From TrEMBL:
This is Integrin beta. The chain crosses the membrane at residues 736-759. GO terms for cellular component: cell surface; focal adhesion; integrin complex. Coiled coil: none annotated. GO terms for molecular function: integrin binding; metal ion binding. It is found in: Cell membrane. Disulfide bonds join C46-C56, C49-C80, C59-C69, C204-C207, C255-C296, C397-C408, C455-C459, C470-C482, C479-C519, C484-C493, C525-C530, C527-C562, C532-C547, C549-C554, C570-C581, C572-C609, C583-C592, C594-C601, C615-C620, C617-C666, C622-C633, C644-C653, C650-C720. One of its GO terms (biological process) is integrin-mediated signaling pathway. Keywords: Calcium, Cell adhesion, Cell membrane, Disulfide bond, EGF-like domain, Glycoprotein, Integrin, Magnesium, Membrane, Metal-binding, Repeat, Signal, Transmembrane, Transmembrane helix.
Amino acid sequence: MPSVRLPHRTTRLGSVVVFFLTFVLAVFTVHANEELSSICQGAQNCGECISVNPECTWCKEDVFEGRRCDLEILLQEAGCGNITNPLPSVVPTEDKPLSEANADLDAIVQVKPQMMRIKVRPREPINIKLYVRQAEDYPVDLYYAMDLSHSMKDDLENLKGLGTTLSEELNSITRDFRLGFGSFVDKTVLPYVSTVPAKLISPCTGCASPHGFHNALPLNQDPSLFANRITNTTVSGNLDTPEGGFDALMQIAVCGEVIGWRPKARHLVIFTTDASFHFAGDGRLGGIVEPNDGQCHMDPNTNMYDFSTLQDYPSIGHLSAKLRENNVIPIFAVTRDQTPLYMSLENYIEGATVGTLDEDSGNVVQLIRSNYDRITSQVRLTSTAPDDVTLSYRANCKDQTYEDTNECSGLSLGDTVSFDITLTAERCVEGGMTSFNIGPVGFNEELQIELEVTCECDCQGLEEANSTVCSSGNGTLVCGECDCNPGRYGVKCECSGNEINMESTDPSPCRTDNTTRTCSGRGECICGKCVCDNTGNPGEVISGQFCECDNFNCPYSRGLRCGGPDQGMCVCDVATRQPKCQCNPGFEGDSCDCPTRKDMCRASNGLECNAHGTCVCGACECFADSQFQGKTCEKCPTCAFGICHIHRDCVECTVFGTGRLTPEQCDMCTVNIINVTSIDEYTEDNPKCNFPLSDDCTFQFVVVSENETVTVYVEGAQTCIEPVGKPTLSVEEIRWIVIGIILGIVLIGMILVCAWRLYTYVQDKREYAQWENDCKKAQWDQSDNPIYKSSTTTFKNPTYGK
C-alpha cells in the first residue's frame, strides 16, 4: 500500500501543539515542585523533614552547603549523594484464601487478607486491597428480644403460635441456627413503673412482675424450647410510654457467654416493640445518675439484669459501639407509628435495619426473613482507625467497575467483592505504632492492621559527639547536621554567643526591604542569617529567607485548618510567600470547604438536585422559580402529591421518551421503573399519579416504597381522547371554507342589523299613531284653579238700606 505524506503545514501545526502542551506541563510541574520545596526547606532536622511531607528527603552528607531538607531531585542536582528517603512497606502477615462453598465451619474464611503490617510516613497515602465473600449456609444465632408491656399482649399471643413457623423459616436460611428469647419492660422505680408493693408483683390483672431485662432462654438448637418458653410468658406493665429496651440491647451485646453467641456465626437480634425508647439521661428522672458502664451485669441465678436500678440507660453512641464490637446486628420490628423514630437509628447503629410490624405481630416471620435477606445482600466496611488515620474506599462490587463507596449491595451469598482502600497517617502517632481493624459490618472476621508511622530517621540514632565537622568539636553531628554545644551557633557551630546580634552592626541581611523587623519577628539573626522559630508543633513550619512564610496561618473550615487533613493542607505559596490552602482531590475553595463531588446532590430518583436546582459546593441550590425545595430539591409543599412530582420526569423520559429532561439527564435516573398493564393493584396504600403527556393523552403511575427500596409501576398504555374524525380537505378547500364562514358571519350580521332597524321603525310608527289618536279623543273645559284665591274681597253692610 503506498504511503501518504501529510502536508508540511499540518506537520508543523502538530509539532506546535505538542510543544505547547509540553511547555504547559513543564511550567505546572516546576510550580508544583517549588511549592513542595518551600514546605520541605523549613524543616530543622531529619525527623521533621520526613514528617512534614512525604515528598521531602534529607541530605545526610557531612559536607553539604545547601538546604538539607528538599525534594530528592533537587538534592541530587545540588550534589548530595547520601539522601535519606524512607520508603513505605506493606507486608501481609496472614493471608488465607477465601473459602469455597460447603467448607467446614472451622475453615470458613470470608475476609482476605486477615493481618497486615504497614510502614508509612505521615501524609503518605498507601493502597491496600481487601476481598470479602459471604459464605453460604453460614450459622445464624437469632435472639428474640420482646417488649412485654401490656400493650404488646396481642403480639405475644400471636407469637406463641409462630414458634414452629419461625424455626422452619430459619431452617430454610441455614441448617445451623440457634434461637434465644428475652424480654424487657423498664426500670422498676418511679416514674417508670408503679412502686406500690402489690403493683411490683402484678401491675395488672394476670400480669407478671415488671423487670429491666430477663434472659428467659439463652441461644440453643432446640426450637421446641423456644416455643415452650414463649408459651409460658405473660405480659407485664409500666407507667410511661418509652420502654427500657436499650438496657436489654446493651446486655444482649456484651454478655456473650450468658446469651450464648458463637464466635463463628452471624449474630442477629429481633427487637420488637410498639413504643419509643429511653436513653442516656432519662435515668435521672428516677434518681439514677450512675452512667452505664457497658459491662455485663446479669445475675446467674435469676438471669435478670441486676444493675437496672443502679445505672442509667446507655446512650445511642455507646450502644452502637458495643453492638459493633461484638458483631451484633439489631433488626427493629416496630409498629407503623414508631417506624420513623427507629429508622433514624439506622444512621447511628451500623448494620441496623427497621421493619414495620403489624398491630398483632402477625408478619414477624416474614419481616425477619426479608431483613435477613437485606442484611446478607450488602457488604459495608467499617473501621476502628484512630482520628490520626484517614481511610478512603473504592468498591468493585459485581460489574467490574469501581465506585467511591465502602458499600456493595444487591449481592447473593457466595459473591466476591473487593475494595481498594487508601490509608493515610495524617501525623505522627505516640510511640510510632498504632493498630486498628477494617471489616464488614456484622462479620466476625476483619483485617487487623499494625501501622508504623515513620517520624524519625535511622541516622538520628548514630550521633558523633564533638565532631570535627562542627568547627573542631563544637557540636554533635547528627544526620550530617551539627547540633551545636551551648554557646555556639551557626550551620557548622562557627559562631559564638557574642556574634548573635548582627543587627547591632549590620541588620540588613536579616531584614526585608523597607522594614525594621528582624526575621519578620519570627526568628533570630544568627551569623547574618535568619534562623526561624520552632513552633513546637510537629508539621508546623516557619520558612523563608526572612521567616516570612509558614504553613499554618491558613483559613479555617469546620473549625479545622483548610477543613482538616481530609480536605486540604496549609502550604507556603511560592509566588506570594503567603500561606494558602492546597486542597485535596475532591475539594476546592480558599479553605477547601467546597466539595467538587456531586453525590450529596443526588435525589432519590438519581437526578442532580431533582433537575430543579444546581449543585454548588456539594449542596443543592433550588431554582428560585421552582416549587421544589429541601436538601435535594425533592420537597414540594404546594404540590398535591410531592412524591409524584419527584418521579414524573424520570418516568416520562424513560418510558415515553418525552419530557423536559435531556438524554444525559435521563441516563442519570436510577429509580426502578416497571411497566405494567394496570396499576390498580398497587394503589391501595399509595397515591395514583396522573400527568399530561400531550394535548390529548395522559400517563399514570404509582410509587411504592418498601424497606427503603422505591419502585415505580407505570401503566404503559396512554389514556388518550380519541378524535371524532380526521380532516380530508385540501388547503384550497379549507381556504374557501374559511372565507365562506367569514362572509356568512358578515351577512348574518347585516341581516340582523337591518331586521333590528325595521323592527324599531315599525314600533315607533305604531306608538306615534297611538299618540295622535289619544290627542283627538281628549275633551278640554275651562275652569278655575280650585286653590286659587282672588285678591279682591267684597263685604255687604247688613244695615244698608234700612
